[in-house]
Amino acid sequence: MESLKARGCCKERHLEVNEENLERIDSYFGSCSKLESYDWLREVSDNDIPELVEVRFKNTRKSFYRNVNELRLKRGDIIAVEASPGHDIGIISLAGEIVEKQRQRTKYKGDREELKKVYRKAKQVDIDKWKQAIDKEEDTMLRSRKIAADLRLNMKIGDVEYQGDGTKAIFYYIADERVDFRELIKVLAESFRIRIEMKQIGARQEAGRIGGIGTCGRELCCSTFVTNFVSVSTHSARVQEVALNPQKLAGQCGKLKCCLNYELAGYEDARKQFPDTNTNLKLKQGEAYHVKTDVYRGIMWYGTTEGSGQALILVPTERVSEIQAMNRNGEVPDELVEFTIADKPESLEYTNGAGQGSLTRFERENSRKKKKKHRPHRNHRKN
């Protein structure tokens, strides 16, 4: 239980759930974690002995392995895999034909023959040793931070991941500049008696490890489901007509929010048929310049150069393309938007409605109700 909890399994976040609910979770997700991959070929492929498997470890670390021993493996199985040196313990996130599709999607470099091997399903001895290594991770991280501070290194060790056999540990660190940690590696190796591997991570990975609540009111995407961090630029904000306010565009990691890329492809596809916004529209009254665009409604707002306080005019994209074509041919239209008789709004005349309504029209008249005389019951006997 502790091993899965330390590896981000959400089943252990709610330990009060019963066994029936856990079986239901397993049937849908196999092994629930933020590193879980959805197997959309689950009901198509019935191969119990997969050639390749995708294995997840701690944080965002994943890798592919060959099932050379032809073991019956499925998602959620804890297995022992080849490492350098020794062996490591991981949880299968994908198995079957979809693993090859996953390799192509993630652009994993290397041939199939170069992949490391799956040794066996993890035995109880392997799991117990794995749990002991996991229990040492927090204490190792705190001690390593003190050692780095004593050596006056401008870096922060954010997390430590022990290998399944306990012979090696990966130290995840954050640094703004290049750090010479050769002396640090010597001190860490002497202190913990293990092999040391230093791995630099960015601010986004650190925010995903710590977690938190975003400005949208939901848990951070990087701590729930985002595993592959893609660079975000201000181009995403410009395409979506978002105000370039650094305080609102930056997340808790100090970088641009990852959600700026979520709808970027849809906006770019919708903008392919849009006219050029840098070209002013020539009218008989003057020139109209572009102010903003509503991409999904296909509407563009234009203003004139005669005054800054003038109201913006809503123009469909078809009309903008038509005016630009007319300007190229030397024609100048009268107005930005042409109204037909049916579409032209009717002029509203001022009417004075004072005194037309009664002040007491909402009051109810008190209707006099006739009092009913009390009639004695038939069976009532007078004394």
Task: Please describe what this structure looks like.
The structure is a single chain. The protein has 383 residues and is an alpha+beta fold. Helices cover 26% and strands 19% of the residues. It has 4 domains: 121 residues, no CATH class; 66 residues, 2-Layer Sandwich (GMP Synthetase, Chain A, domain 3); 50 residues, no CATH class; 48 residues, no CATH class. Helix 6 links the parallel strand 7 and strand 8. Helix 5 packs across helix 6. It is elongated, with a radius of gyration of 34 Å. It starts with a helix and ends in a 55-residue tail after the last helix.
Summarize this structure as a short list of keywords or feature phrases.
383 residues, alpha+beta, GMP Synthetase, Chain A, domain 3, 4 domains, five-stranded mixed β-barrel, four-stranded antiparallel β-sheet, 11 helices
Q: Number of DSSP strands?
A: 12
Percent helix among the residues? 25-40%
Low-confidence stretches: 10-18, 21-31, 340-344
Strand order of the largest sheet: 1-2-5-3-4
The SSE string, one letter per element, is: HHEEEEHEHHEEHEHHHHEEEEH
Strand content bin: 15-25%
Distance between the termini: 86 Å
